[in-house]
Design brief:
Shape: elongated
Structural class: alpha/beta
Pfam families: ABC_sub_bind
Keywords: Signal
Strand content: 15-25%
CATH superfamily of the largest domain: Response regulator
CATH class of the largest domain: Alpha Beta
CATH architecture of the largest domain: 3-Layer(aba) Sandwich
InterPro entries: ABC_transpt-TYRBP-like, Peripla_BP_I
Organism: [Clostridium] clostridioforme 90A6
Helix content: 40-55%
Protein name: ABC transporter substrate-binding protein
Length: about 375
Protein backbone atom coordinates (compact mmCIF):
# COMPACT_ATOMS: atom_id res chain seq x y z
CA UNK A 1 0.00 0.00 0.00
CA UNK A 2 2.78 2.41 0.95
CA UNK A 3 4.55 1.54 -2.29
CA UNK A 4 1.40 2.28 -4.24
CA UNK A 5 0.91 5.61 -2.47
CA UNK A 6 4.56 6.51 -3.09
CA UNK A 7 4.15 5.75 -6.79
CA UNK A 8 1.02 7.94 -6.98
CA UNK A 9 2.78 10.84 -5.27
CA UNK A 10 5.74 10.58 -7.62
CA UNK A 11 3.44 10.61 -10.66
CA UNK A 12 1.55 13.67 -9.36
CA UNK A 13 4.79 15.55 -8.72
CA UNK A 14 6.07 14.78 -12.22
CA UNK A 15 2.83 16.03 -13.76
CA UNK A 16 3.03 19.26 -11.77
CA UNK A 17 6.60 19.91 -12.84
CA UNK A 18 5.74 19.18 -16.48
CA UNK A 19 2.81 21.62 -16.35
CA UNK A 20 5.06 24.33 -14.92
CA UNK A 21 7.60 23.82 -17.69
CA UNK A 22 4.92 24.10 -20.37
CA UNK A 23 3.50 27.27 -18.81
CA UNK A 24 6.95 28.81 -18.57
CA UNK A 25 7.71 27.92 -22.18
CA UNK A 26 4.43 29.45 -23.33
CA UNK A 27 5.13 32.68 -21.43
CA UNK A 28 8.65 32.82 -22.86
CA UNK A 29 7.33 32.30 -26.39
CA UNK A 30 4.71 35.04 -25.92
CA UNK A 31 7.32 37.47 -24.64
CA UNK A 32 9.63 36.66 -27.55
CA UNK A 33 6.71 37.17 -29.95
CA UNK A 34 5.92 40.59 -28.42
CA UNK A 35 9.58 41.61 -28.69
CA UNK A 36 9.69 40.51 -32.33
CA UNK A 37 6.47 42.43 -33.07
CA UNK A 38 7.88 45.53 -31.40
CA UNK A 39 11.13 45.23 -33.33
CA UNK A 40 9.27 44.83 -36.61
CA UNK A 41 7.44 48.14 -36.10
CA UNK A 42 10.49 50.17 -35.06
CA UNK A 43 12.03 52.58 -37.53
CA UNK A 44 15.72 52.90 -38.19
CA UNK A 45 15.95 55.94 -35.91
CA UNK A 46 14.37 54.04 -33.02
CA UNK A 47 10.85 55.47 -33.27
CA UNK A 48 7.99 53.01 -33.44
CA UNK A 49 5.52 52.84 -36.31
CA UNK A 50 1.75 52.42 -36.43
CA UNK A 51 -0.23 50.13 -38.75
CA UNK A 52 -0.15 52.78 -41.52
CA UNK A 53 3.64 52.61 -41.61
CA UNK A 54 4.13 56.14 -40.18
CA UNK A 55 6.56 56.59 -37.32
CA UNK A 56 5.12 57.81 -34.03
CA UNK A 57 7.04 61.05 -34.54
CA UNK A 58 5.34 61.61 -37.89
CA UNK A 59 1.92 60.70 -36.52
CA UNK A 60 2.46 63.11 -33.63
CA UNK A 61 3.42 65.92 -36.02
CA UNK A 62 0.32 65.29 -38.13
CA UNK A 63 -1.93 65.49 -35.08
CA UNK A 64 -0.16 68.41 -33.34
CA UNK A 65 -2.18 71.48 -32.47
CA UNK A 66 -0.94 74.99 -31.75
CA UNK A 67 -2.01 78.20 -30.04
CA UNK A 68 -0.60 81.51 -31.26
CA UNK A 69 -1.06 85.15 -30.31
CA UNK A 70 -1.45 87.64 -33.16
CA UNK A 71 -0.99 91.26 -32.12
CA UNK A 72 -1.70 94.09 -34.58
CA UNK A 73 -0.58 97.63 -33.79
CA UNK A 74 -3.24 99.62 -35.66
CA UNK A 75 -6.41 99.22 -37.67
CA UNK A 76 -5.77 99.95 -41.35
CA UNK A 77 -5.78 98.18 -44.69
CA UNK A 78 -2.13 97.29 -45.10
CA UNK A 79 -1.83 95.70 -41.64
CA UNK A 80 -5.18 93.93 -42.13
CA UNK A 81 -3.77 92.51 -45.36
CA UNK A 82 -0.67 91.35 -43.49
CA UNK A 83 -2.83 89.45 -41.03
CA UNK A 84 -4.88 87.89 -43.84
CA UNK A 85 -1.73 86.81 -45.66
CA UNK A 86 -0.16 85.45 -42.46
CA UNK A 87 -3.12 83.18 -41.82
CA UNK A 88 -3.12 82.07 -45.47
CA UNK A 89 0.58 81.22 -45.30
CA UNK A 90 0.05 79.06 -42.22
CA UNK A 91 -2.94 77.31 -43.83
CA UNK A 92 -0.89 76.52 -46.93
CA UNK A 93 1.57 74.78 -44.61
CA UNK A 94 -1.19 72.68 -43.04
CA UNK A 95 -1.68 74.81 -39.92
CA UNK A 96 -5.25 76.07 -40.10
CA UNK A 97 -7.42 77.94 -37.64
CA UNK A 98 -10.28 75.77 -36.39
CA UNK A 99 -8.51 72.58 -37.46
CA UNK A 100 -5.21 72.39 -35.60
CA UNK A 101 -4.70 76.05 -34.72
CA UNK A 102 -6.16 78.34 -32.05
CA UNK A 103 -5.59 82.06 -32.65
CA UNK A 104 -5.70 84.73 -29.96
CA UNK A 105 -6.01 88.11 -31.73
CA UNK A 106 -5.85 91.65 -30.40
CA UNK A 107 -5.29 95.18 -31.75
CA UNK A 108 -3.61 97.95 -29.76
CA UNK A 109 -5.25 100.76 -31.78
CA UNK A 110 -1.87 102.50 -32.25
CA UNK A 111 -1.16 102.68 -28.51
CA UNK A 112 2.25 101.48 -27.32
CA UNK A 113 1.15 100.79 -23.75
CA UNK A 114 -1.75 98.67 -24.96
CA UNK A 115 0.64 96.76 -27.25
CA UNK A 116 2.74 95.76 -24.22
CA UNK A 117 -0.37 94.65 -22.32
CA UNK A 118 -1.45 92.49 -25.27
CA UNK A 119 1.96 90.84 -25.45
CA UNK A 120 1.97 90.17 -21.70
CA UNK A 121 -1.49 88.63 -21.98
CA UNK A 122 -0.32 86.30 -24.74
CA UNK A 123 2.61 85.17 -22.57
CA UNK A 124 0.26 84.54 -19.65
CA UNK A 125 -1.88 82.28 -21.80
CA UNK A 126 1.11 80.17 -22.77
CA UNK A 127 0.97 80.60 -26.54
CA UNK A 128 3.37 78.61 -28.69
CA UNK A 129 4.33 81.62 -30.79
CA UNK A 130 3.54 85.33 -31.10
CA UNK A 131 3.13 87.27 -34.34
CA UNK A 132 3.73 91.03 -34.17
CA UNK A 133 2.20 93.04 -37.02
CA UNK A 134 4.04 96.40 -37.39
CA UNK A 135 7.16 97.63 -35.63
CA UNK A 136 5.76 98.81 -32.26
CA UNK A 137 3.82 95.57 -31.75
CA UNK A 138 6.81 93.43 -32.69
CA UNK A 139 8.98 95.39 -30.25
CA UNK A 140 6.41 94.99 -27.48
CA UNK A 141 6.12 91.24 -28.03
CA UNK A 142 9.85 90.64 -28.17
CA UNK A 143 10.34 92.83 -25.10
CA UNK A 144 8.25 90.50 -22.95
CA UNK A 145 9.18 87.28 -24.78
CA UNK A 146 12.87 87.64 -23.86
CA UNK A 147 11.98 86.33 -20.40
CA UNK A 148 10.35 83.19 -21.85
CA UNK A 149 11.09 80.66 -24.55
CA UNK A 150 8.21 81.85 -26.76
CA UNK A 151 9.39 82.82 -30.27
CA UNK A 152 8.22 86.02 -31.99
CA UNK A 153 7.57 86.29 -35.72
CA UNK A 154 7.11 89.82 -37.04
CA UNK A 155 5.79 91.34 -40.24
CA UNK A 156 5.53 94.87 -41.64
CA UNK A 157 8.66 95.98 -39.78
CA UNK A 158 10.43 98.50 -41.99
CA UNK A 159 13.85 98.38 -40.34
CA UNK A 160 14.37 95.36 -38.05
CA UNK A 161 17.92 96.49 -37.23
CA UNK A 162 16.84 99.96 -36.06
CA UNK A 163 14.01 98.31 -34.12
CA UNK A 164 16.61 96.10 -32.36
CA UNK A 165 14.95 92.93 -33.60
CA UNK A 166 17.93 91.98 -35.77
CA UNK A 167 21.66 92.52 -35.85
CA UNK A 168 23.42 94.59 -38.52
CA UNK A 169 24.16 91.47 -40.57
CA UNK A 170 20.49 90.45 -40.62
CA UNK A 171 20.78 87.71 -38.03
CA UNK A 172 18.10 87.61 -35.31
CA UNK A 173 18.62 89.47 -32.03
CA UNK A 174 17.20 86.41 -30.25
CA UNK A 175 14.22 84.11 -30.77
CA UNK A 176 12.70 86.63 -33.16
CA UNK A 177 12.49 86.86 -36.95
CA UNK A 178 10.05 87.75 -39.72
CA UNK A 179 9.61 90.00 -42.73
CA UNK A 180 10.41 93.62 -43.52
CA UNK A 181 8.25 96.02 -45.54
CA UNK A 182 11.18 98.30 -46.35
CA UNK A 183 9.98 100.90 -48.84
CA UNK A 184 11.41 101.04 -52.36
CA UNK A 185 12.31 104.70 -51.82
CA UNK A 186 14.29 105.25 -55.00
CA UNK A 187 11.58 103.68 -57.16
CA UNK A 188 9.01 105.94 -55.48
CA UNK A 189 11.07 109.09 -56.14
CA UNK A 190 11.57 108.11 -59.78
CA UNK A 191 7.81 107.55 -60.16
CA UNK A 192 6.93 110.91 -58.61
CA UNK A 193 9.34 112.66 -60.98
CA UNK A 194 7.71 110.97 -63.98
CA UNK A 195 4.22 112.01 -62.88
CA UNK A 196 5.13 115.51 -61.64
CA UNK A 197 8.03 116.78 -63.78
CA UNK A 198 7.84 120.31 -62.31
CA UNK A 199 7.57 119.41 -58.60
CA UNK A 200 10.30 120.53 -56.20
CA UNK A 201 9.18 119.83 -52.62
CA UNK A 202 7.83 116.56 -51.27
CA UNK A 203 6.10 116.55 -47.88
CA UNK A 204 6.26 113.63 -45.44
CA UNK A 205 4.33 113.32 -42.18
CA UNK A 206 5.58 110.83 -39.61
CA UNK A 207 5.24 109.74 -35.98
CA UNK A 208 8.31 110.64 -33.97
CA UNK A 209 8.07 107.51 -31.82
CA UNK A 210 8.10 105.08 -34.77
CA UNK A 211 11.70 104.14 -35.62
CA UNK A 212 10.51 102.64 -38.89
CA UNK A 213 9.44 106.09 -40.09
CA UNK A 214 12.64 107.81 -39.04
CA UNK A 215 14.65 105.24 -41.00
CA UNK A 216 12.55 105.77 -44.15
CA UNK A 217 12.79 109.57 -43.95
CA UNK A 218 16.58 109.38 -43.65
CA UNK A 219 16.69 107.40 -46.89
CA UNK A 220 14.32 109.82 -48.62
CA UNK A 221 16.51 112.78 -47.65
CA UNK A 222 19.62 111.02 -48.88
CA UNK A 223 18.18 110.10 -52.31
CA UNK A 224 15.81 113.01 -53.02
CA UNK A 225 18.48 115.41 -54.41
CA UNK A 226 19.35 112.89 -57.13
CA UNK A 227 15.84 113.45 -58.54
CA UNK A 228 15.71 117.20 -57.97
CA UNK A 229 13.54 117.07 -54.83
CA UNK A 230 13.74 118.51 -51.35
CA UNK A 231 12.04 116.67 -48.47
CA UNK A 232 9.91 118.70 -46.06
CA UNK A 233 8.99 116.56 -43.05
CA UNK A 234 6.58 117.13 -40.17
CA UNK A 235 6.61 115.03 -37.00
CA UNK A 236 3.58 114.22 -34.87
CA UNK A 237 3.20 112.44 -31.55
CA UNK A 238 -0.37 111.16 -31.93
CA UNK A 239 -3.34 111.09 -34.29
CA UNK A 240 -4.69 114.22 -32.56
CA UNK A 241 -1.86 116.21 -34.20
CA UNK A 242 -2.60 115.14 -37.77
CA UNK A 243 -5.19 117.70 -38.86
CA UNK A 244 -3.08 120.72 -37.87
CA UNK A 245 0.14 119.16 -39.17
CA UNK A 246 -1.53 118.43 -42.52
CA UNK A 247 -2.73 122.04 -42.86
CA UNK A 248 0.80 123.30 -42.25
CA UNK A 249 2.52 120.77 -44.52
CA UNK A 250 0.18 121.21 -47.48
CA UNK A 251 1.07 124.91 -47.75
CA UNK A 252 4.80 124.14 -48.07
CA UNK A 253 4.93 121.37 -50.70
CA UNK A 254 4.01 120.37 -54.25
CA UNK A 255 2.97 116.87 -53.21
CA UNK A 256 2.98 114.50 -50.25
CA UNK A 257 4.32 110.97 -50.09
CA UNK A 258 3.13 108.64 -47.39
CA UNK A 259 5.22 106.11 -45.50
CA UNK A 260 4.12 102.95 -43.74
CA UNK A 261 3.83 105.01 -40.54
CA UNK A 262 0.98 103.35 -38.63
CA UNK A 263 -0.46 106.39 -36.88
CA UNK A 264 -0.44 108.45 -40.08
CA UNK A 265 -1.89 105.66 -42.23
CA UNK A 266 -4.73 105.13 -39.76
CA UNK A 267 -5.69 108.82 -40.28
CA UNK A 268 -4.92 108.98 -44.00
CA UNK A 269 -8.51 109.98 -44.99
CA UNK A 270 -8.06 113.24 -43.05
CA UNK A 271 -4.86 114.04 -44.97
CA UNK A 272 -6.44 113.10 -48.30
CA UNK A 273 -9.43 115.37 -47.76
CA UNK A 274 -7.26 118.35 -46.86
CA UNK A 275 -4.84 117.72 -49.76
CA UNK A 276 -7.68 117.33 -52.28
CA UNK A 277 -9.10 120.71 -51.23
CA UNK A 278 -5.75 122.32 -52.16
CA UNK A 279 -5.25 120.16 -55.29
CA UNK A 280 -2.13 118.59 -53.77
CA UNK A 281 -1.34 115.01 -54.94
CA UNK A 282 -0.73 112.42 -52.23
CA UNK A 283 1.34 109.36 -53.08
CA UNK A 284 0.93 106.13 -51.14
CA UNK A 285 3.30 103.35 -50.16
CA UNK A 286 1.08 100.35 -50.96
CA UNK A 287 -2.08 99.21 -52.70
CA UNK A 288 -4.64 99.99 -49.98
CA UNK A 289 -3.58 103.64 -49.80
CA UNK A 290 -4.06 104.05 -53.55
CA UNK A 291 -7.43 102.34 -53.34
CA UNK A 292 -8.75 104.91 -50.84
CA UNK A 293 -7.49 108.03 -52.61
CA UNK A 294 -3.73 108.32 -53.04
CA UNK A 295 -2.73 109.10 -56.62
CA UNK A 296 -0.18 106.31 -57.09
CA UNK A 297 2.48 104.20 -55.40
CA UNK A 298 5.47 102.04 -56.13
CA UNK A 299 4.41 99.74 -53.36
CA UNK A 300 4.34 96.31 -51.83
CA UNK A 301 1.67 93.64 -51.71
CA UNK A 302 1.03 93.21 -47.99
CA UNK A 303 -0.96 90.02 -48.43
CA UNK A 304 2.09 88.41 -50.03
CA UNK A 305 4.30 89.82 -47.27
CA UNK A 306 2.03 88.25 -44.67
CA UNK A 307 1.93 84.94 -46.53
CA UNK A 308 5.72 84.82 -46.58
CA UNK A 309 5.69 85.45 -42.82
CA UNK A 310 3.15 82.68 -42.20
CA UNK A 311 5.36 80.15 -43.93
CA UNK A 312 8.28 81.16 -41.73
CA UNK A 313 6.09 80.80 -38.63
CA UNK A 314 5.05 77.28 -39.72
CA UNK A 315 8.68 76.15 -39.73
CA UNK A 316 9.13 77.41 -36.18
CA UNK A 317 5.90 75.86 -34.91
CA UNK A 318 6.77 72.46 -36.38
CA UNK A 319 10.22 72.60 -34.81
CA UNK A 320 12.02 72.51 -38.17
CA UNK A 321 13.93 75.69 -37.33
CA UNK A 322 14.26 78.05 -34.40
CA UNK A 323 13.48 81.71 -34.95
CA UNK A 324 17.05 82.50 -33.96
CA UNK A 325 18.26 80.43 -36.93
CA UNK A 326 16.33 82.41 -39.56
CA UNK A 327 17.39 85.82 -40.88
CA UNK A 328 14.56 88.26 -41.54
CA UNK A 329 13.30 88.39 -45.14
CA UNK A 330 12.09 91.14 -47.47
CA UNK A 331 9.98 91.44 -50.62
CA UNK A 332 12.31 93.19 -53.02
CA UNK A 333 10.06 93.75 -56.02
CA UNK A 334 7.80 96.83 -55.95
CA UNK A 335 4.83 97.26 -58.30
CA UNK A 336 3.02 100.32 -59.67
CA UNK A 337 -0.50 101.04 -58.45
CA UNK A 338 -2.47 104.01 -59.74
CA UNK A 339 -5.89 105.61 -59.31
CA UNK A 340 -7.26 107.18 -62.49
CA UNK A 341 -10.20 108.77 -60.69
CA UNK A 342 -7.83 110.66 -58.39
CA UNK A 343 -5.68 111.62 -61.39
CA UNK A 344 -8.73 113.01 -63.18
CA UNK A 345 -9.77 115.01 -60.11
CA UNK A 346 -6.29 116.55 -59.97
CA UNK A 347 -6.06 117.18 -63.73
CA UNK A 348 -3.12 114.79 -64.04
CA UNK A 349 -2.51 112.14 -66.68
CA UNK A 350 -0.63 109.09 -65.44
CA UNK A 351 2.28 108.27 -67.82
CA UNK A 352 1.70 105.30 -70.11
CA UNK A 353 5.13 103.92 -69.22
CA UNK A 354 3.78 103.37 -65.72
CA UNK A 355 0.19 102.36 -66.42
CA UNK A 356 0.99 99.73 -69.04
CA UNK A 357 2.94 97.73 -66.45
CA UNK A 358 0.68 98.51 -63.49
CA UNK A 359 -0.07 95.77 -61.00
CA UNK A 360 -3.50 97.37 -60.62
CA UNK A 361 -5.29 100.56 -61.69
CA UNK A 362 -8.31 101.80 -59.74
CA UNK A 363 -11.06 103.81 -61.40
CA UNK A 364 -12.91 104.70 -58.20
CA UNK A 365 -12.07 105.91 -54.70
CA UNK A 366 -13.02 103.33 -52.09
CA UNK A 367 -14.94 104.58 -49.09
Amino acid sequence: MKKTIAMLLTAALSASLLSGCVSTAQNTTAAQSAETSSADTSSADGSSADKTGKSTAESSADSASYTIGVGQFAEHGSLDNCREGFMAGLAEEGIEEGVNLTVLYDNSQADGGTASQIATNFIGKGVDLMCGIATPMAQAEYGVAKKSDIPVIFTAVTDPVAAELANADGTPAGEVTGTSDKLPVEAQLKMIREILPEAKNIGIMYTTSEVNSESAIAEYKELAPQYGFEIVDTGISSSADIALAADTLINKVDCITNLTDNTVVASLPVILDKAAAKNIPVFGSEIEQVKIGCLAAMGLDYIELGRQTGKMAAQVLRGEKKASEMNYETIKEAAFYGNTRVAGNLGITLPEDLTKNAAELFTEIAQ
